[in-house]
Amino acid sequence: MSEYANKKTRGAFIAAVFAMQGFGILAGGIVSLITSAAFDHAFPAPTYEQNAAASTVPQADYVWRIILMFGAIPAAMTYYSRMKMPETARYTALVAKNAKQAASDMAKVLQVEIEAEEEKIEEISETQFGLFTKQFARRHGLHLVGTAVCWFLLDIAYYSSNLFQKDIFSAIGWIPPAKTMNAVHEVYVVSRAQTLIALCGTVPGYWFTVALIDHIGRFAIQLMGFFFMTVFMFALAIPYHHWTLKANRIGFLVMYSLTFFFANFGPNATTFVVPAEIFPARLRSTCHGISAAAGKAGAMVGAFGFLYAAQSTDPAKTDAGYPPGIGVKNSLIVLGCINFFGMLFTLLVPESKGKSLEELSGENEEDSSSGNEASANRTVPI
């Protein structure tokens, strides 16, 4: 998308691709709600505290399988269309070195005749550098550190909050204790709570980014998002006992929803957008992949770390099989600190608003440095 879009609306187009994740989250919640409601109605069961063994009916084993299998449907739907989608002209020309195919693909997209200029591709190729070179380190080393570390730090906080909403909601008493429900009904209650948070905070945040990213810029949105995530995490954590009181639960949920809003109207969107813009065409997907892989490493740290850290400091109150942790309050403080460091590493990431991909990656400079001034504009101006 970054290589097909024009520089004025490129941010909105890439962010819109990412924002579809929000509809996927809602769809997943709806599938979970429908499936669990149907099984809960069809196969009534006592609560866990009434009869622990009978609270999980044998048919409950189908619930998670059905929900999980629904995820194959969108994957299958996109597979065929992606196979038919041509590679971008930049990739075909600069990486695959196929000028004729690049010209043909661009002619189909722009509906104009484009002449293949193979000799220009050869001249440009002579100035290219690889990922593990001094030229890359000098031009884009700090950029890659910035995009990778920001994505890593974001996903620690984002996935911690996302995956353990159930524990946080239970801790403040918004959803009943697990022992007062049967297994299938618990799936329904948790799905309802998570879908509500997604509807009120997550999805609007995505589309605020789409609407404003090409007006206020990627840097400002990412810095602002990390800042407000830090503020709201501390605002939830420091007076934590205040939020656990029944009268203050709605306030907690509002604040908690705002952390998701500013994650998506913030770094969760921009960490996806920026690596797709600022690196050279021949290394763009590689650097985006490195940044994304750092994010998934952060997700693993967040998922397993929060699972242990959020356990009560009282050994008698921990989940079965887990050692005492630092508690939800201190875990939220740690996440707030992580978001603060995300603000600092955002300073390494350049602003890409309103600039062509060649300006951002310095590919035009490479062409000029080869001694042929005319080659500075030889890449396809999309």
From TrEMBL:
Localization (cell): Membrane
Regions annotated as coiled coil: 100-127
Matching CDD domains: MFS_PhT
Mode of membrane association: Multi-pass membrane protein
A GO cellular component entry from the record: membrane
Major location (coarse): membrane
Region called Disordered, residue ranges: 356-382
PROSITE patterns: MFS
UniProt keyword list: Coiled coil, Membrane, Phosphate transport, Symport, Transmembrane, Transmembrane helix, Transport
Limits of the Major facilitator superfamily (MFS) profile domain: 1-354
Pfam families for this protein: Sugar_tr
TM segment ranges: 12-39, 62-80, 141-160, 193-213, 220-238, 250-274, 286-310, 330-349
A GO term, aspect molecular function: symporter activity
Record GO biological process: arbuscular mycorrhizal association; cellular response to nutrient levels; phosphate ion transport
Record-linked InterPro entries: MFS_dom (IPR020846), MFS_sugar_transport-like (IPR005828), MFS_trans_sf (IPR036259)
Family statement drawn from the similarity comment of this UniProt entry: Belongs to the major facilitator superfamily. Phosphate:H(+) symporter (TC 2.A.1.9) family.
Designated name of the protein: Major facilitator superfamily (MFS) profile domain-containing protein
